[in-house]
Amino acid sequence: MRKIIAGLAFVLMVCTGVAYAGYEEPMPDSGFLNGLGAWSFAGNAPVFTNSQTVSTGGTAGSGPTSFTTISSPEAGNYVAIYGTAILMSPVVKVKVGDKFMSVVAFSGEDYPPFNDAFTVGLISVLTGNTLASVTWSIDTIGGAYSLMPWTQFLHTFTGDDELQYFVKIENILDRQLDSWGFSTAGTILRVPEPASLVLIAIGLFSIFVLAGRRRKQK
User: Fold this and answer.
1) Taking the model in full, what pTM does it have?
2) Strand partners, 104
3) Distance of alpha carbon 121 from alpha carbon 93, whole angstroms
4) Nearest Cα to 88, choosing from 24, 157, 162, 189?
5) Computed from CA positions of residues 9, 14, 16, 17, in that sequence, does the dihedral angle turn out positive or negative?
6) pLDDT tens, residue by residue, 110-167
7) Which end of the chain is more exposed for a tag (fewer CB within 10 A), N or C?
8) For the segment 77-92, what is each residue's pLDDT rounded down to a tens digit?
9) What CA–CA distance (Å, rounded) separates 151 from 119?
10) How far apart are the C-alpha atoms of 42 and 47, rounded to whole Å?
11) What torsion, rounded to 10 degrees, do the Cα atoms 122, 125, 129, 130 define?
């Protein structure tokens, strides 16, 4: 009986740890292995996946100078856009406490005053408001022909919502196709459901009851 109780306690401890930490849920079509999938795109230039296949628009070409040398933090899971373009994810539902995380990079292949910019962010489908966004420009990443290495974009949701993740590149003033933006599809770290926590609490209570009965029998 003692071994059974110990075994149940260990299993519940593991389950409690998993529930407390939540779990990661990848965004739809997160691998980009078959193009953009359900992601939408608008722009005047092609989109490259990590395998250097053109997903939509424009002429193929060979990609940016840094495309073949930049290391992806998640193999098989990023895109590169240039020109004046925006890429948007499918709609995803989130709950309060959930977190969104992506990893992005920016290759500023121009010089001021052609201060090209790269923006990533989250838009609420319910309200149309931008929940969070970050913009990098050639000036902010170190000047002409600079490369911003892979950087984490992280946001915690303060309410239930439906969102789209967007990746946007702008070639300022000259509108030439030179600077590039890179992004993984992103993942959502889900908080545990209240029902899961209740079940774990019931399980732990049952173990204490069984242990108490065992002691009384002695």
Assistant:
1) 0.73
2) 151, 183
3) 16
4) 162
5) positive
6) 887 878 899 999 999 999 999 999 999 988 998 888 888 888 999 999 999 999 999 9
7) C
8) 677 887 788 989 999 9
9) 12
10) 10
11) 10
